[in-house]
Write a structure and sequence with these properties.
The chain is an alpha/beta fold and 286 residues long. It is built from 13 helices and nine strands.
Length: 286
């Protein structure tokens, strides 16, 4: 006869297993996966700790738990994550949206308010679409979002439809290096691959083994995409503004690169951890 598990028993057992694999927030992970399996809110688990689980529920939960024990990110197992107050579907074709990227969105929304008419925004490296969707959801701006990955673009379009921004965002398969200038846009936003290859190899397993490599690193020093973007911006024959996410401790490298251009008003904004995370740059027509 198979053992009958209560909610509390399976949470405690899973917590221990996850802890033994050095997975952070093990109890939270166990509770979230169980709540998802039972299709209830996590807080509702606390109201029915003594409830026994059916064999089918145990089977479905164990399938999720095994994936987490193998270090697959919780967001991929769940199939979605929350970003800037909206739900974003994710899979292994896209980078998992991070809380620190919300700083980029917040600054973009603030920047939009300084325009008399809604500016045309270009999002370079759309991924899941989280940046474009969060901006479009909170402004009246038309947004063009580009990416080279067909699977990422398909998911971004799905996310846009789910969040009622499909009529505001145009997702396009384009290579940023093919742009000569940004004359068609007013604001450029991007969270480019900025992890140096030397640092990529020491990333956590959850990141290195599951998230798309091309969205994390340029396989060089982590500055390739900034140079491409700055080159294109410097050829632009109108006033534009740029908001770009940068890596931990990379302000100096960005400043060194910026010294080769005639941009003005470079400002660095910190994330909630106090790490300089976003750089704001202005380019004025000559």
């Amino acid at each position: 006869m198979e053992k009958t598990w209560t909610l509390l028993e399976i949470i405690k057992s899973s917590d221990e297993l996850l802890t033994n694999r050095n997975i952070k927030n093990s109890r939270l992970n166990a509770e979230v996966l169980l709540a998802d399996t039972l299709n209830i809110k996590r807080i509702d688990l606390y109201l029915q700790f003594d409830k026994p689980l059916s064999q089918d529920e145990i089977k479905r939960f164990k399938e999720k738990l095994v994936r987490r024990l193998n270090y697959e990110p919780l967001q991929y197992i769940r199939g979605f994550t929350e970003f800037y107050g909206i739900n974003i579907k994710v899979n292994r074709s896209v980078l998992i949206p991070r809380q620190e990227t919300e700083v980029l969105v917040e600054k973009a929304i603030d920047l939009v308010k300084s325009y008399d008419t809604p500016p045309h925004i270009l999002d370079i490296g759309a991924g899941s679409g989280c940046i474009s969707i969060a901006i479009a959801k909170n402004t009246q701006c038309p947004v063009e979002a580009i990416d080279l990955d067909d699977n990422a673009l398909a998911l971004a379009k799905e996310n846009s439809q789910l969040n009622d921004t499909g009529n505001k965002i145009s997702f396009q398969k384009k290579d940023i290096s093919a742009f000569h200038d940004f004359n068609a846009y007013d604001v450029i936003v991007s969270n480019p691959p900025y992890i140096p290859l030397s640092e990529y190899h020491i990333l956590d397993k959850e990141v290195k083994d599951f998230e798309p490599k091309h969205a994390l690193t340029d396989e060089k020093e982590g500055m390739s995409f900034y140079k491409i973007i700055f080159d294109i911006a410097s050829r632009t024959e109108k006033d534009i503004r740029l908001l770009l996410e940068i890596g931990d401790g990379k302000r100096k490298k960005v400043e060194e690169l910026l010294s080769n251009y005639s941009f003005s008003n470079a400002v660095f904004y910190p994330d909630l951890m106090g790490i300089e995370r976003v750089v704001y740059i202005e380019h004025h027509k000559q």
